[in-house]
C-alpha cells in the first residue's frame, strides 16, 4: 500500500484554501486538510467556505484542476458556550467537496458536558457522511490518550475516531504500549511532524514549539516510526509549522521539503507488516 500524505493548514498557516490546494498539488501531496471553521484567533483570516461563495467556488475549481482530495476540515472544538450545531454549514460544504473527516478537540473541563456535546457533533457529522476525529492536546482539557479513549468509549459512535498528533503524543508522555491497546478501526489519519525530544516545562515555550517550531520528520527527538507503525496505515497529514524554515524557503518550498524529508525518513524506517496490517 502506497503511503499517502496531506498538507495540513498550520504548515502553511493563513494560506487561502484555493492557493493551499494548488500549492499542495505542486509539492506532491495526495490530499489537502483545510481550516474553514473560523476560530477567531488573533490575526487569523476567516476562510469560511460556507459564508464566502466566491472562496468556495475557487476551492472547488482548485480541487478539480489538481485532482487532489479534501481529507479533513478543522477545527470543531468542544468548548463552553459553543453549540456544535454552528459547525453544520461547514460540515455540509466539506461533504460537498468530497471531504471525509472533521477534526475536533475538547477545551472544557466539564466531562458530562463535553461527552454530550461531542456525541451531538458526531450525530451531526454523520448526517453528511463525515467521521469526527478527536485529537488530544496537552494544553487542552482532554490532554492525553486516556482522555480520548474515555470519550470515544463513552459516546460509542461508529463515526467517532482518534487522531494522533505525533507532537502531542510525545508531549503527553503517552506510550506505544498504551497506543497498541486502542481499537484499530478508530484510526483514519495522523498528524505528522517531529519536535525536540526534551519536553519544555515552560508553558509559553511549549505553545511556541506547537505553533511555530516543529521539526522535519527525522530531525527531532521523537520516535516517529515507533508511533505510526503502531497504527494501521492511514494518510499522514503533515502538520509541521516552523516559522523560521517557512520564512526562509517560502511556503511552497517548505511544504515540499516537509514531504520529501518525511518520505526519506519512512524509506529508512519501513513499516513492520507483521505488527500492523494495512
UniProtKB/TrEMBL annotation:
Keywords linked to the UniProt accession: Isomerase
Highest rank taxon of the organism: Bacteria
Pfam families: AP_endonuc_2 (PF01261)
Gene Ontology molecular function: isomerase activity
Keyword Oxidoreductase: no
Entry keyword annotation includes Isomerase: yes
Domain annotation Xylose isomerase-like TIM barrel: ranges: 24-243
PANTHER family, per the entry: BLL3656 PROTEIN, HYDROXYPYRUVATE ISOMERASE
The name this protein goes by in its record: Sugar phosphate isomerase/epimerase
Species per Swiss-Prot/TrEMBL record: Pseudogracilibacillus auburnensis
Organism lineage string: Bacteria, Bacillati, Bacillota, Bacilli, Bacillales
